[in-house]
Structure formats: C-alpha cells, structure tokens
Amino acid sequence: MNKLLAIESIRNISYLKGLRKLYDECEIQIRSLNSLNVTSGSYGNLLCPIILQKISEELNLEFNRYRKNDTEFQIEELMDFLKREVNCREAANFVNKNNQNVKNFRSKSRVEDIILIIEINLLVQRLHYQQ
Length: 131
Prior knowledge:
The chain is mainly α. It is 80% helix and 0% strand. It contains five helices and no strands. It has helices spanning 2-5, 16-35, 40-54, 57-66, 75-130. Helix 2 runs antiparallel to helix 5. InterPro entries: DUF1759. Pfam families: DUF1759 (PF03564).
C-alpha cells in the first residue's frame, strides 16, 4: 500500500508516459496484494480515492461518468477504466505521430522535388547557353 501512496500524481492528461507508469504501478501493486490473498473488497474503498487523487481532474470526472454504481468504489472498475483510457490515448498518439511522419515525409518529398526541378532547369539553361 505504501508504494501506491507514493505514486507520482499525473495532472497533465497529455503526459502519456506518466499515465502508463501510474497504471502499470497500480496494476503491479494490486496483483501483489491479490497474491497475498488480500481481497479487493478490503482495500478497494480506500485505494480508489487515493488513485483518483493521483490523476487529473478531467480523468477523475470521466471515471465518475463511467462508473456503473454510484455508491461504492470498485478497484476493478477503476483499473478497467484506466487501462481503457491509457490504451485509447496511446493508440490516438500513435496514429497522430504516424500522420505527422507522413506529412513530414510528403513535405520533404515536395522540397526535394522542387530542388530537383530547379537543378534540372539550371542544367537546361546551361546547356542552352553552351549551344
């Protein structure tokens, strides 16, 4: 439980590495508790608010919209939400980076094409003047 209390807070929703680290660390510690036969019922109500304090207000709000039961915190429900959220953000980030790489490639190709056209024009002009 001490390791879960010491996890770094992630206030910037765009800090994907931090969100992934937070999720992974929570998952590791929860599995450790389960391997010691500590049931989620005995720590879930305490742990959920602690984890919710570690994430941004926006994610906290999103989780509260996502919750199925308004009375009790379920650690499994929170971890499912965080897993889905991190995976979706990583996928979106991957797609955005690939689109940016394609745009950069196209831009470089256009610049290279323009340079090639200019060089060909200069060569044609030189040949024309030599005649």
